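Bug #2210: token dump truncated for Thiamine-phosphate synthase?
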Amino acid sequence: MICPHPVIEMHESNWQRGVYALTDATLLPDDDTLLTAAEGALRGGLALLQYRDKSSDEAHRYRQAAALAGLCREFATPLIINDDVALAARLGVGVHLGQQDAAVAGARERLGPGVLVGATCHGSLELAARARRAGASYLAFGRFFASRTKPGAPPAELSLLGEAARFGLPRVAIGGIDGDRAARAVAAGADLVAVVHAVFGAGAAASEAAVRELRQRAGFTS
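Reproduced locally. Full output below:
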């Protein structure tokens, strides 16, 4: 499939370490708030930005995702679409998927080798191994702490991050991450820390400062 937007292939050093922010439709309820918050977070030095909106309004999701894709191109930061390979293909951006390795393999085949495909692995090294074989670009583990976004997600131990080094892919820590917890996750082996409320929970105008603080406290400033 030919994408209407050019695919941007990212060099590894541009995204493999740092703060990974996930948007939230409740915290960022309209286009202006979403784009203001996202631009601030990008200015703060995000490694990755994920657009997460579970609504069934495809036109709404395309409009917002296309606007975010434009912003991310300005900052040379990859945009990841949550759980929608078709939208990712349409925009020429990456995708994050759940734990089905067939979905990861299908996304890799459809999007091509130069696009990021992330995989949720919860607390399972077996899921991580399968995702790696299927073509994942990074492996997301957690939740490591109590999460307001997904309070029912299965818990995981921080030691898992060190064990997952065997796969040779960037390891993402997710679940209740704030400044202190980000530092703990990085010390345990995380390459990226995925956050929602820690960046977008204090309002759109605060996102830039929130990212800068997270980067500093997690040791991502070098």
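Output looks complete on our side. The chain has one domain: 12-218. Marking as cannot-reproduce; reopen if the truncation happens again.
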